Fold these 2 entries.
Entry 1:
Amino acid sequence: MSSNYDVIIVGTGFAASFFLMRYLERAPQQNRVLVLERGNEDSKAWQLANRLHTSIDPDDLVENETPGKEWYTSPGFGGNSKCWMGGTTRMMPGDFKLKSRYGQGFDWPISYEDLEPHYGIAERVMLVSGPADSPMPRSQPAPLIPHRFSDPDALLKAHFPDGWYQMSTGRASVATGQRGVCCASGICGLCPVDAKFTIQNGLADIYKDPRVTLQLRSEVQTVETAGGVARAVNYVHQGKEQRDTADLIVLGASALFNPHILLRSGFSHPLIGRRLHEQMPVYVTLDLKGVKCYNGSTVLTGLGYLFYEGDHRADHAACMIETWSSPFAYRSQDALRLERGRWNERLMLGFLFDDIPSDDNRVTVSKRNPSVATVHFNDYSDYAKKAADRIPKMVDKLSEALPIERIVGTSLGTTAAHIQGTVVMGDDPATSVVDRHLVHHEYRNLLILGSSAYPTASPAYPTLTVSALSLWAADHLLGRAQA
Amino acid sequence: MNRRQLLLGGAGAFAVAGLGLWGFGRMGLEAKIASILRRRLSFLTLDQDGVRAFSKDQATAILAKKIPTWNRLRYHFGAVGPSFNRFYRSTDRRSRVARLEDTLVSTFLLSSDFFLNGGDESRMVKYIVYYDPIRPCQNPFARPVDA
């Protein structure tokens, strides 16, 4: 039997939860919201006992045609908040204007100024720890004091005061009453002290609101449309096919599964599923002379913006550098330096480059099993690779602040653990699927949230922007409804 | 000897041979681990009982690794093909074996009292318990925030 709701939301990760939070703040008490989640509610205790962040093998949901390129996802209540590392950088103003300012890639249809207040709200909800100074304009400071720099960070900050900053992160720096304090265990996917913000430890209460019905183990198959509006959601719950209707349908199922659902539903815009992208991650291990590393208060302690904004973006990609402060084997890089007296005189840096999305990198529906998303990724853009080729020059620049003895090695990571693009936003329906408020251009009661809307990557971690975009979309929608 | 006896005898011999190989393989693995530790940390004084205990625990950890799912295996098989080479480029000049050794020795040091004693290289290094990153706050170098 079919039920009717005011809203049906698909997914329980950052995009869906931040939208729901904002919606519940303003929606009438009689409204009814159905939330459909494909996975289970895997508690923190279950995750630690089983050493898994999800009880569903993500490989069962994704057919990767280029398996050397990994895509991390965590099905279940809370979505990727369970496995994320907690990076909460904002995008830089120039990231929104890559085409108009630098002649590369695409512009976003919104500006940094549009999102700025929503960034602030998202940071307060996540209790973000961040520096007092900032490379981008801010109307308010981060809610928690910053994490402690490692020694190499302190040297970099002293030498590049406007180029090096403490990490902005959802890993708590001090007690919050909600979660533990990060002690740099270095295993964020299964944080043993529950220090990072997750939907489970930070926003679970919204799912207990009497207006909300959360239905787990519900695999959404299609969104049904008729007469220019989205009418219903068809899904399988515990092996049984179901169909529920709603006035508003919201997809917040990640950049892999938002396009997957749309394609299964017969949506035909040529860009659906295309422009899958993420940052190009390169890890560089350096041996230092007389500088002790890994001694910050969290797993990633510093952020370098020396090679981020600037005219070079007309030629090659921007780069954000992250300082790793884990002593052991993260990203398959052994971290201890096995020499007498120099055990932690080794520094690992991550260089994240923005990529220009290509139509060839895409998500489709598996021909073998339509419940599975097929992912194909050809390669990063020449724009990103050209920037990565400049790493030796960047290391030379860092050597002005650091006594670098040698580069132990550089390696291209198999993933930055971000998934973006595939249902891109824009003002022109011919070149985008959703508008600046994440509303489908054709079906005006269908919202498609999350990083699937990203026209371009930016070197910044995507999660805070995902959350801010959901707040932005909810504010527009509710403002529109009230008007 | 009837067919049943033959089959049972064959199965028994196979099991004994398997157990023998398993035991020999396991002992060989433990010996190899211990020898790597002694060689790479020759400039430290290692508690030899601790080295043996760690080697045993490390071998158990290696052998206890779950059999990967078909999807994982597909990834690993795929990973040695051209697509892996396209996405994983490394300029690390150390051999893969040397890097594995580095990881092993790092695990031993993090499992010992070495860093608890401030990295004092004049003291005997004693094994405590096998390093487990899921055990909270095991990073020996981390310092709390200056609140």
Entry 2:
Amino acid sequence: MQTKKYDYCIIGSGAGAGPIILEMAKAGFSVLILEKGPWIKTKDFSKDELVSCRRDVYTPSKVDEFHVIESQTSDGEWRALATRDTNKNYWNGSCVGGSSNFMSAYFHRLKPNDFRLLSEYGPVKGANIVDWPISYNDLEPYYTKVESVIGISGEIRQHSTLEPRSTPNYPYPPLKTNVVSDWIDKAGVEEGYQMVNGARGILSKTKDDRSACYNSNYCGSYGCSSDAKGSSRVALLNEALKYNCTIIPNAKVFHLETDGQNNVVKANYHLNGEKHFIEAVTFVVACQAIETSRLLLNSKNKDAPNGLGNENNLVGKNLVFSAGGIGGGNLYFEDFSKEDAEKIKEPGSFVNRAIQEWYEIKEEDSDTKLKGGTIDFLFEHTNAIPKLARQKWNGTRLVYGSELKKNIHSYFTKQRKIKFEIFNDWLPTDDCYVQLDEKEVDKWGDLVAKVRVGYHPHDIKIAKYLAKKGERILERIGAKNISTGISGEPSPNLVVGGCRFGGNPNTSVLDKNCKVHSNNNLYVTDGSFMPTGGSVPHTWTIYANSFRVADHLLSNRR
Amino acid sequence: MKNKRVKKVKEGKDLFSNIEGWELNRRRFVKTLSITTVLSQIAVISSCVTKKNKLYQANQYVTALESEIIQKTQDVLFPDDGNGPSVIDINAYPHLLWVLTDERKDEESISYITKGIGWVEETAQENYGRTFSDLTQIEIEELIAFIAEKNWGAGWLSMILTLIFEALTMDPIYNVNTNEIGWQWLEHKPGTPRPNKDNSYINIFNTINAN
């Protein structure tokens, strides 16, 4: 039984946890990390598709741990299905460092208007849009800090929606790009757009004991073998462990205990089949949005019968994903010179181009402006099985035999697929939230999260607008068979919200420093705090905010 | 009988309706030792299959009939037609056996594979009045075509194809993709570093648990 009382108990070890862990440890505080997953170290990673993607070694068994997902059927009914029984997976990397180990690390800052969505663009019927309690200027120093501490590579180019910066450029030069990046730049200019040289949370040069990116050919979904990718584990936790910091892996926290005076006093957890607890002065929860809400709801007691911080039934509400979709087209080698075709084939090189021309959309013949989004260009992932799998079906007809072999060989040797991903706001609504399932439990007997994943039709409208722009660029560079898929299907790896922060305890779970309003020593520092998600991937903002909260905690302690 | 089959699938998880969704991700962070053992046993079977060319023997995992159905179905799905490797070249059959013995895979997925083998035999009996073993090559191809037009059949065949794809492109450390023959045919460049004995699926859980 653990009796030592720590200064900080951090639950989770991903992007929302790492900055606080490092800053508190460096400041001399004792820090104890409870991580549900195992400790997978750099040497344990390889580019093995079987381990990383086919058998999902880095996420929990969906038999042991699962979610219940409520989706809306075509007739408007909500249907709940356990992921144990479907092909969905809402885990994103359950191990020390969390899903940051496996991110693609497309890094974008939010822009000033993302912090004032309601004020700038007005209400949208059916959406719970609010302004943030902090401004872009409050977060800017921490975005900058992430650039150097995590390590962000890229090149700043002036464009119409470039956010204000306190430094002229990224600390690391751009990663190696493919010839297609030059063509996209040219196509953008021809269309009259200002192209963004997309930043990545990946080192292009050696930093301390982390090596530069070596263009492994398999990046997103795979652990990094050079530590170039700026995961919480390599960029923050490894450094924190040099101080008074301890990690307990495979420790699943199931309940936070309070003292009747609005203080959390213990984190109760399962480890090796036994129950344990940790005592600390301050507790920080950063388990990724869904699991964070689940833990607060599962921590109900006589003083907090609806769960911690849930006096107003707001915990779990206003969950947001990233809206948008994916488009793509084929670059057939026969359409290019032999020399260019060889350049297109070059393994490992990135595209790293984006357009944010329509981060704000002005409607034609009107003064109305709408919040738009980001288009990121990238190659189809080079691992083999998904590419093979797409050749199996022609509509609903199963393709097999010599026809299949011919198609497969052609797909792999005659073309390379260029894609774009659209990121726009997933508007918060009353139909997207986390609650506890009434009866389904995980392998420890704890109620699992039941997640309703409704979306706002406005999200689709914006995504379709952006898709047309992306398709035009692909046409310009010579892609064929261009198509786009836009839907309200959520991306489980891009999820925030559920414990939105705000100035009013009646309408928010957290205060502006991410402390639970109704509690004295409980903080939430993963993406749960975000009342709106912006029109970019969330990771950079989560890192930055965690550094901001760390500064607040340090100033309080001093 | 066929209505019954459809009902079975509909009541199941529908895990195999598309490749993206078919998940072999049932893992427990223990129970790892036997995988190495099984892999070595299957390596022997693999050697036997390669040498004797389609010898449909019973083994501790399947009956002789099941072995024949699996291998002949795989051959129809991914034929030795002169374009790229055959299923024998990539050890597709031993790979399927290995999957059947993966203790981290949920029982329902395993059950789906084995039940499907039974459905093929059942359909052979219904359509031809004979066991699968007695069908001619042309009849087998007709049978697979017939099955592929049924929802239950297309789903099952799709799953068998997925396992062939794994044998075609997984790292040779798994006794498949022999001498990288699949990668060479597809001009595919794998990511680096490639798996080693400690961090491949065979030992990864032991390695992680030792951290």
